[in-house]
Amino acid sequence: MLKWVRSAARALIIRNGELLAIRMQRVPDEVFYILPGGGQRHGETLMDTLQRECREEIGTQVRAGEIAYVREYIGRHHHLRKLHKDFHQLEVVFHCELPEGVEPRPGRDHDKHQIGVEWLPLDQLQGMEFYPEVLKTLIVDGQVNTRHLYLGDIN
């Protein structure tokens, strides 16, 4: 089987003490959250990927800023290893803002496991199943604070 590294772009949107997240569902009682974004297509820039994925998942394009962090996810190293044993993704996460007056909503072409779009209170992230989990520890005073741009293979 041919194996490759998938590249992806994600949006980190924090507003009024809340983080914009995609609500996902694996099975009926298993809900988790991720940042908006997804896989890059051949011939597409990361910025094009970010805008397309945000239109699909949160119903709008975003104003993209600087890179917040870069992470890898090598599935066989993490708790979903049985599901993701051959999955390897490199994610570039951008600080983003929504256009003025726009409220996010599921787009027309969202992922099949996406069941909603939610603003998650930053002070309640610790009790939620949110990926990457390390983001919970990087949010200080309503902002993501990273000492290093590349975070490595994290879940």
UniProtKB/TrEMBL annotation:
<dbReference type="Pfam" id="PF00293">
    <property type="entry name" value="NUDIX"/>
</dbReference>
<dbReference type="InterPro" id="IPR000086">
    <property type="entry name" value="NUDIX_hydrolase_dom"/>
</dbReference>
<dbReference type="GO" id="GO:0016787">
    <property type="term" value="F:hydrolase activity"/>
</dbReference>
<feature type="domain" description="Nudix hydrolase">
    <location>
        <begin position="4"/>
        <end position="142"/>
    </location>
</feature>
<dbReference type="InterPro" id="IPR015797">
    <property type="entry name" value="NUDIX_hydrolase-like_dom_sf"/>
</dbReference>
<protein>
    <submittedName>
        <fullName>NUDIX domain-containing protein</fullName>
    </submittedName>
</protein>
<keyword id="KW-0378">Hydrolase</keyword>
